[in-house]
Fold this sequence. Notes:
The structure is a homodimer. Chain A is of the alpha+beta class. The first copy, chain A, contains five helices and ten strands.
Amino acid sequence: MMREGQDSKPKLCHATVIFGDIRGFTSFASKHPPGRVIHLLDRHLENQIRLVFDEEGTIDKFLGDGIMAIFGAPQALDNAELRAVRAAWRMREASCQPVRDEEGNEYVLRSGFGIATGPFVLGFVGSRRLSSLTTIGDTVNLAARLQGVTGDADIIIDRTTYEKVKEFVEVESLGQVTLKGKENEIIHCWRVTALKDASGE
Amino acid sequence: MMREGQDSKPKLCHATVIFGDIRGFTSFASKHPPGRVIHLLDRHLENQIRLVFDEEGTIDKFLGDGIMAIFGAPQALDNAELRAVRAAWRMREASCQPVRDEEGNEYVLRSGFGIATGPFVLGFVGSRRLSSLTTIGDTVNLAARLQGVTGDADIIIDRTTYEKVKEFVEVESLGQVTLKGKENEIIHCWRVTALKDASGE
């Protein structure tokens, strides 16, 4: 998925990637009727999408109850790292507000986020009928991995993102993690505990 | 992504899910120019998509160099499990044939596959501009997990799939694995080593 008017030529980007995920949603989905599951997910994602667009991010795709967004690609964006962290902060806050099913019952779909910044390849693949934006690179894998580090409704960022946003956020160090398939590569990561200026302006 | 004319109402499906992935592609992509990476991936996925359609499967989405396909949903399909295994077998074989870049250089993008059968919720989510098919359920998570069990260009299937296809394939037991976040749940899985009748008819 892309916003309109963008160049579809493959390119090497340097940008910030967010992976978000509703905690425990697979289990939730197994206990509720499909109509309700999709209705609630739809409401939730509608809010999440809006918050990505508010910070000029691009939705890459939905993955089950997950969402992947990109800041700073395919088009460059000033302060992409801070915009991504701010978007994730608001997405997390929004996810802690209840969404209503068609009967007015309320459910909270708390979400956690992983954020990484770095290079990746971006382009369109597939047949004409099934063309799709795709992203290839360790930055994307790292964001997906960080999303799962705590399993809670947290925002976890990598070092490159941290270095760019550290004046604007409060963080707690989570120490080091390893990436699947790259056990000899140590990744330092941080949990974002607050935005210093909630308006972010 | 869906094939035309299908019902978009949320439903609880019982179907077979394939996750495929090119082994080592992230690393490959970091060493080649973006144009070549996307060109080769495009050629590869074009072949993979065709083989999914040949067995009447549906492409759910592309995930970087990965592909997710569904057999038996949104519309029922006779022998969905066997069709999925047969498709994966041919997708794996196709992935062992070289694809050419624009200068005629050849590269082999060997792929591995995870296959699981069971219930999941299927529906459309997102805003009108970004509507997307989505799938929620342990069956989907299991197929994704099985895809990574060996890290080789293998086809790994779960018990439900195995029970339905065992007369038609040769397998090797891989014993038990656990699912991330469900470490107390033991999953038995098998590697498909041959189709008994390569024509599958």
